[in-house]
Amino acid sequence: MRHALSLLLASTACIAAPAFAQDMAPAADAAADADSAGIIVFGRGETRQVQEITTRDLTTLTPGTNALKAIEKLPSVNFQSSDPFGSYEWSQRVSIRSFNQNQLGFTFDGIPLGDMSYGNHNGLHITRAISSENIGTVRVSQGSGSLGTQSTGNLGGTVETFSMDPADALGAQGNLTYGSDETWRAFARLSMGSADGIRGYVSYAYGSTDKWKGQGTQDQHMVNAKVVIPVGDGKLDGWLSYSDRREQDYQDMSMDMINRLGWKWDNTSPDYAKAVLYADIGNNRGETGAPVSNAAAGTVYPDNVTSVWDAYYDAAGLREDWLGAIGYSTPLGDHANFKIKGYYHNNSGMGLWATPSVPSPTGGSPLSIRTTEYDMDRIGVFGSVDATIGIQTLEAGAWYENNKFNQARRFYAFKSRTEAGLSFRDYPKNPFATQWEFDFTTDTIQYYVRDKVDLGMLTINLGWKGFKVTNEAEAIVSSSFPEGKIKAEDWFQPHAGFAVELSPEAEIFGGFTQVTKAFASATTTGPFSTNQAGFDQIRDDLKPESSDTYELGLRYNSSRFNGTLGAYLVNFRNRLLAVQVGSPILGLASALQNVGNVRAVGIEAAGDLKLGQGFGLYASYSYTDATYRDDVLNSSDGTLVAAIKGKTVVDSPKHMLRGELNYDQGPLFGRIGANYMSKRYYSYTNDASVDGRVIVDASIGYRFTDQIEVQLNASNLFDKKYISTIGSGGFGNSGDAQTLLVGAPQQFFVTVKAGF
User: According to its UniProt record, where is this protein mainly located (predicted)?
Assistant: First the structure.
């Protein structure tokens, strides 16, 4: 099947972005006509840089693909993942204008998702909140985003995802996907309701794929349900989702390992005996120093291995989430509106790793399973009131959240030296040791005020937001990590912007935004990742990170061409850096450092051109110059730790260029897109980097009827060998580090879609 699909895709010089079923399509944008192949919505009337990706674009990707992979075509968006779907959480990273993932804001239907990190201390990943087939719109603000965004971490941009509304009639849709590495995915949705009454849908999705190298499986069960209920002039809306995701990990690499062991090097599983041998040889190189080896193993590793860290036996991430929300919105007379939504999120999960550093106390194995375990209960509410008075629209809103988060480090025993007796796809039981366990409580209060003034050709936005976030840690099982309380508070973060209409098609926009970022509540990041003495020293004086963003740009919207051109300047202050001590996989305490300021300047351009006869062309380009403004100094004596002043920010490519040709006319549709990214550094002193690369993806499909279609997708069409994720184990000051993940090779998928 691989060769047949390759020939079919290669023979097609066009690509496209169809909308499959009516109940999937979002509301049409005013700038797009009915037969348009355009898929990008540029922010007409906005006073900041903003774009939207709609359902029509998401449907061209392989079903189950992370929605964040769809936004990588937008200017200044750097998205990376080592799997073709962009859903493998250990490898998934997104940065915007050089700001990394934990400095961005993410929401789903307004519900805060936190920073969507692998450790998920304050939220959950979007792929565990909603199936891709149920997404209506993804909105990206490359600056700090809207004042009303429920986020205290959006220093450098926001990504807002919105579920599609239910159809107003009975309908159903089913998708079935099969492809490379035994990928299977099934999706089914039932919609029902009426235009003037209750509307809703419920869906179930299951996806499973073997790892493209090594052995292991990544799969997920997900249920989504949404309902909209008219109540007088207003409406109630409800959301409920459940996700059970289990993914076995790929091996973290360094450039030395890639050169020495090859691109397809991975964990040793299912060869448990080899993992035991590696651990025996490297017995005194772990965190305990205890001799646990079999002396007969010798001192020389086989397979060109030079360190026990070159290959783990196995590793995995297990996550289970419940997310529910109820909202109410209603007009207040003819010129005002009120909205409110409450939500609840429960998460249980763990990251597992077969460590050669701690032996099992029974059975004689030199290995054990080390876990980082997560339990989270978040409850919150947010709302707003707006009123139009003459030329002014006044708006005020607030958000409150209480997050109770438990995090623990535990160890579980293997059965013996010859039999593992434990599966990395299941939650282990009966730990033989708990290294540490903490309860974290985070209380967030945020408000905003905004005034939009419409002067005809000129629109002005003025406003500010403020917050107070209190973080508290309490040890259940004590360790070197600290206990105590710390808070971040900034009640006035101003926003100002303007948009000037030059003609019915063209407008100039610009603005200024100031944002402060709250601290994190976890042992793995933020002020609680240091020791007690370090925490006590910084708790009263540590300044939170903050940024000032200046933007200026031009938009043009017509029936044939939509585009944007912009420039920005960002001054980033009080940058905090937690530097790992020892190998990142060991999970030792980090030393929190203030590395000073960063300045980023850049240019962004994007355009969507309708060529006629069903053809469309999209392209975007971004130039980013992000540099550290200060060297890293020892906070106690002022000595130089790392000379990084003037160096480029890690994982910040200077050039990103994306192009896409699409076609959609009659029964045939297709798309081919190329993604170029220049060199990226993965050390702060810029002495370690990965080369630039071009990745090409494509899709082609055929509609047999209005209800049945088939779609073929190819990822990495020309089988490019490249590094996808950098910084999987953090970033070091200098030198090659085991913090890289290899990108997936050429893969093909076929999907059949049916509906009524």
Answer: membrane
